[in-house]
Backbone:
C-alpha cells in the first residue's frame, strides 16, 4: 500500500495553467510603416466644431447729414443727442459731433441757434436759427433746409425755407421750391417759377454804383 502524500496540489485558478483552458495567443498589432513619400498616409483633418456665430452689433444710430458744410465761425447753442469727441481750448483742437437721426427736425428745434460767420461759401442742410453773416461769401440754403435767421451776405441762393430778412449785396437766387417769409434787400433778384416770397423787396446799389 503506497503512502498517502502529505500535500495535494489543488487545481490552479489561472486559466493558462489549467489544462481545460489552453493559453490564447494574442497577435501583436504592428504600426503601419510610413513610406518616405507619405502617399499611403491619410492627412489628419480637424473635425469642424459647430460654433454659434455672434450677430454683428448694430450701430446705435446712423449719422445724419451735417447741418452746415463749410468753414465758419459759430457762437451759440447746439443741442446734442449723440456722441461728442475731440478737444477744446488747445492749439489745433477739433470737436466732432455725431447726432442721431431726427424724424421731424422742426419739432425738436434748431440744430444751431446763434451767430454764424463765414468767408467763402457755406451750405445749410438742416435747421438753423439766429444770424448768418459774410462780407463776400455765398450762402446756399438746401431744399431740405430751414433757416430762421437774418441773413447778410454777398450772394444768397435759396432752395429751402427762410424765415427772416435777407440782405445780399450782389444777388439773391430763389429756386422753384424756395419759400421766403421776410424782406429782401439785394442788387439783383432772380426768382424761378414756383418760388414763394412774402415781404418787401428793395434794390440796393452794387459796389460799382449801379442799381
Residues:
Amino acid at each position: 500500500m503506497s503512502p498517502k502524500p502529505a500535500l495535494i496540489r489543488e487545481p490552479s485558478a489561472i486559466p493558462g495553467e489549467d489544462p481545460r483552458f489552453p493559453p490564447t495567443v494574442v497577435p501583436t498589432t504592428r504600426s503601419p510603416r510610413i513610406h518616405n513619400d507619405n502617399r499611403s498616409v491619410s492627412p489628419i483633418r480637424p473635425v469642424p466644431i459647430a460654433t454659434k456665430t455672434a450677430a454683428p452689433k448694430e450701430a446705435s444710430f446712423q449719422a445724419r447729414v451735417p447741418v452746415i458744410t463749410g468753414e465758419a465761425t459759430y457762437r451759440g447753442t447746439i443741442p446734442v443727442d449723440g456722441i461728442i469727441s475731440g478737444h477744446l481750448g488747445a492749439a489745433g483742437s477739433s470737436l466732432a459731433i455725431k447726432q442721431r437721426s431726427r424724424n421731424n427736425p422742426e419739432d425738436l428745434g434748431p440744430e444751431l441757434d446763434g451767430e454764424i460767420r463765414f468767408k467763402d461759401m457755406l451750405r445749410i442742410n438742416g435747421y438753423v436759427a439766429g444770424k448768418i453773416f459774410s462780407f463776400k461769401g455765398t450762402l446756399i440754403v438746401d431744399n431740405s433746409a430751414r433757416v430762421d435767421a437774418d441773413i447778410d451776405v454777398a450772394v444768397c441762393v435759396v432752395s429751402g425755407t427762410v424765415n427772416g430778412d435777407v440782405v445780399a449785396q450782389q444777388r439773391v437766387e430763389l429756386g422753384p421750391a424756395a419759400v421766403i417769409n421776410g424782406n429782401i434787400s439785394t442788387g439783383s433778384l432772380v426768382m424761378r417759377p414756383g418760388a414763394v416770397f412774402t415781404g418787401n423787396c428793395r434794390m440796393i446799389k452794387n459796389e460799382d454804383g449801379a442799381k
